[in-house]
Design brief:
nuclease activity, Bifunctional nuclease family protein, 34% strand, Bi_nuclease_dom, alpha+beta
Length: 161
């Protein structure tokens, strides 16, 4: 089963100094932090801030290609968590045909923001990420989860939704 999520914000991990995209479900009960690379975070931040660039960036190019081919993005799904790596699928629709495309979550999220399509996370991914947090580095991950759940708008700085 898929849980609809929204991008709550983008922030830096205070421990690793790596960017984190924070997904939160519509009811506000579950969060999912996804660590991403600097360049991927920049692509997401540009769209959150609605910054236009002089030339199309990669995700803008993909959006333009899809629109030019009259292909819609129905949804993106963070579909799996395997060996501490998240996987995603972009679901396209063209002429009534549904096409699934394997993707990194950061690229899927950057595209979802640009095309204003829904973001989902498989329920199993949410459960697995919680159980992973319980098994390894229990204290650190529990503290991080409490910290993430307690964030307010000021904690996100400029990059909040």
């Amino acid at each position: 089963m898929e849980v609809e999520m929204k991008i709550r914000g983008l922030m830096m991990d205070p421990v690793t100094n790596m960017p984190i995209v924070i997904l939160k479900d519509a009811n506000g009960g579950q969060i999912l932090p996804i660590w991403v690379g600097i360049y991927e975070a920049n692509a997401i931040a540009l769209e959150i801030e609605k910054v236009s660039t002089p030339r199309p960036m990669t995700h803008d190019l993909i959006k333009n290609v899809l629109l030019g081919l009259e292909t819609g993005v129905r949804k993106v799904v963070v579909s799996e968590l395997r060996d501490d790596t998240f996987y995603a699928v972009i679901w396209l629709e063209r002429d009534g045909e549904i096409i699934s495309i394997d993707s990194r979550p950061s690229d899927a999220l950057a595209l979802a923001l640009r095309l204003d399509c829904p973001i989902y996370v498989e329920e199993q991914v949410l459960k697995t990420s919680k159980s992973t947090a319980n098994v390894s580095d229990k204290v650190t991950n529990e503290e991080l989860r409490r910290w993430l759940e307690g964030l307010n708008d000021e904690d996100f700085g400029r990059y909040k939704m």
